[in-house]
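Q: Okay, next protein. This is Folic acid synthesis protein FOL1 from Pestalotiopsis fici. I've checked the sequence twice, so it should be correct. Can you predict the 3D structure?
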Amino acid sequence: MSFALLPRAWSSVGRQSHPANLPRNLINKIAAASRSTSLPTRWKMDQPSRAACGCASAKRSGKRSAYIALGSNLGDRVTEIEKACHEMDSRGIKVKRTSNLWETEPMYVLDQDRFVNGACEVETELEPLALLDQLQDIEKTMGRKKLIDKGPRNIDLDVLLYGDEEVNHERLQVPHIGIPERDFVLRPLAELIPTKAIYPSKPWKLVQDFLNELPPSSEPLSTLTPISPSVGPLNALKATRKTHVMAILNTTPDSFSDGGIHTFDSMRDTILSFIRGGATMIDIGGQSSAPGTPDVSAQEEISRVLPAIELIRSMPESRDVAISVDTYRAPVAEAAAKAGADVINDISAGQLDPDMLSTMARLGKTVCLMHMRGTPATMSKLNDYPDGLIPTIARELLERIAEAEAAGVRRWRIILDPGLGFAKVGEQNLQVLRHFDELRNWPGLEGFPWLLGSSRKSFIGKVTGVPKPMDRIFGTATTVAAAVQMGADIVRVHDVVEMGQVVKMADAIWRY
């Protein structure tokens, strides 16, 4: 028996337990026992470690982090990727975080449709090869047929990284061999782990370093945020994208500028005017967020919102319009989604109902997370930003994003809103508009689409001297043009016809 093959734990116990200091009869007993199949594997001698090469198929004793590439270019690409994530979760491969989704040109085999690519961080007890087996079985279960190498596929799942381990096996190479050369892999990884080393042998070279070294592509990549089957996705980094007009449809008697105007009898005509004015989204609200307005019950809010959703869904003219529900209550969000709403627009970003984030995740809808502090009744007093307005909004939105992701909301399903008029007064709203591009490019916020809602708000009245909200059209128009110039993807407005014209002109100037 070789002393070098004795259990490694002995070397750390002390000189008195070194094999050379043990009695010969004890050494002989240990040697004989090591050849017995009755001893646990960790005590057996002359057995190479299967875990070291990634060959074991059993579960590990502890959970490990791995990073999985997600890709699709057939069918409903986002739905296919979301199905794969759901399947991983159901098999105990817990999806902890996701990147944004990136739309990319095909690589290697060029004669095929554009891909949607992303990455996710998973937590697993599976060994690398067992993890690969599960991913390939998910592909098979979802109907993938590999006819051409690197050709079209409805789903593609690859192990990119597995902890800090290297795996060299005929079936699996980790880190994935294609990481350094693939923009569509490095960008999602850089969203998740920008400061992680890809190769353990080169701990000084990080994911972000590899991404920075890539030559610029002929067409810059853009993120992709799905809205609805009838409305194309948002491409927040595409310079020539069109700005979406979101029409405000309040079904409340006490909203600050249009309370009681939109009755059910007049609603059809209102919706038609929105569509003719260029609205691609309609945001329906059944609870006013104006300071001083009383709360209504969730059931009352549902009774106000659902008839509007059902009406829009029944109208042939609105088949290409997405429906958003403006609510911070989980029961309202759920009822609205079941009735046909596409987007959940929560002014509190999940802070006013403890069930909202988990409900968002379960419904799988795209969500808008707005920056706000406190409640509508207290927010105006919570407007102190000693560390700077933009840095604080960025930090607090990053916290909201992390909370949403922890609840299971996918990163590619998130729209952000800086919350004009919410815990911001007067000049602070102008600062947000002036420095909105800085907020969009804040580390960790890059690639998200943004909604801006300045319509008729009090800071416009203070600047222009117009007391009545309904008369603030020209002031609102200026803020909408500024929002487009600074990079907003959606503008939320009351005066759809007028603001639709402003958006068309602003797009023509800045998004040509």
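A: Here is a summary of the prediction. The first helix runs from residue 24 to 34. The chain has 15 helices and 16 strands.
Q: Noted. On to the next one.
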